[in-house]
Amino acid sequence: MNAPWKPGFTGQRDPFHAFVCDDHSYDLIRSVCAELGWAPEKVNKGGMRNAVQSLSITASPQILFVDMSESGDPLNDINSLAEVCEPGTVVIAAGQVNDVRLYRDLVASGIQDYLLKPFGADQLRDALANAQAVFMAPRDAAPERPHMTVAVIGTRGGVGASSIATSLAWMLSDKKKRPTALLDLDVHFGTNALAMDLEPGRGLTDAIDNPSRIDGLFIERAMVRASDTLAILSAEAPISQPMMTDGGAFYQLLEEFRQVFECSVVDLPRNMLIQHPHLMTDAQVTLVVTELTLAAARDTIRILSWLKSNAPQSRVLVVANRVHPGSPEISRKDFETSIERKVDVLIPFDLRVGAQAAKLGKTLAEAAKGSKVGAACTALLDQVLGAADAGDGATGAAAPRKKGDSLLGKIGDFRNMMPSRRKAKTAALED
């Protein structure tokens, strides 16, 4: 039985395949292939469409050259290619469009290089040499910790879900030293940046208005840094400006976060579950933040039921927040009976700590050090990390992305591309 292909194993893969649209490129590539000792018959007529059809029934090569000259939608066609391409294949694309944005989008999608037609033999040799170096370079070991996405949902307005989201993001970044992204999806009234005494900027509204701009460079420029390990993306859009989006921008942002950060904390208004349920697709852990009231009990039941049906992969934790030391409207025991499960974390109400956090522009967890609230926040952090660890590889856990889910990490490793070379290529295209 043949062993499955693994990164670095080359015995069962052809070194090179090409799919080109014109005779000049066909003859040139065949000539260079002969120089390198590769089989010229692996150079085929037909561009992207032929490549997708062929690779759907044959093994992927080490290096793939694909001509995009006849492609009407290059980025969509690249995603189609990803569906049939094995992990680790290094892809070189060629085309007639001299556009720096297209180049950046293709590189961000995982393409190793883009050659502008007509290209010469020396350009082709350089591109193939770099592709060989990338393919043969030692692969980094799989990260010890997969990316963790935590969704924070409040059952009612005013239960303090945003306070929990900012506290969790701060603890992950400060206490655990994990690079963390905090995404506040309350576009008009979000308070995540305000809670940390930061200006939200225009990053989130720009992303909604121009989803095609979202890439690693956009993330770097749009996010507001709270510390070396914590970055925030939020907004204070004008109340007169309705949010016109199908949610695609939010999903793209989360995809980029997976490449840049170890953790993503999403402050998700409950109405988003109705409008954009797909945002819960990759949430390994969901915090349902509630208060001990009759209305909150009703909505906790409804949200838990929705999560069971629509996000079964997510580990759910119920957090009772701002619980008064006196008699709450509903006792914890009666609340748990009504929702038919335990409250995982109870955070007591402390007016002094809350006021101190607001005055200092700090998260609740940071301001509550040494108090009962601080101890409860630490317990929450431990519960979240435990839920995420329990979910890795377990039934019902958030499964790792399968072949075809995303081109990133499948076709080449574009982040290993030398920065100086990428800048030079970008400058050349801009000229």
UniProtKB/TrEMBL annotation:
GO molecular function: ATP binding; ATP hydrolysis activity
Domain of life: Bacteria
UniProt keyword annotation of ATP-binding present: yes
Annotated region (Disordered), positions in chain: 410-431
Cellular component GO terms, alphabetical: cytoplasmic side of plasma membrane; cytosol
One GO process term, biological-process aspect: negative regulation of cell division
Keyword vocabulary terms for this entry: ATP-binding, Nucleotide-binding
Protein's name in the database: Pilus assembly protein CpaE
Lineage, highest ranks first: Bacteria, Pseudomonadati, Pseudomonadota, Alphaproteobacteria, Sphingomonadales
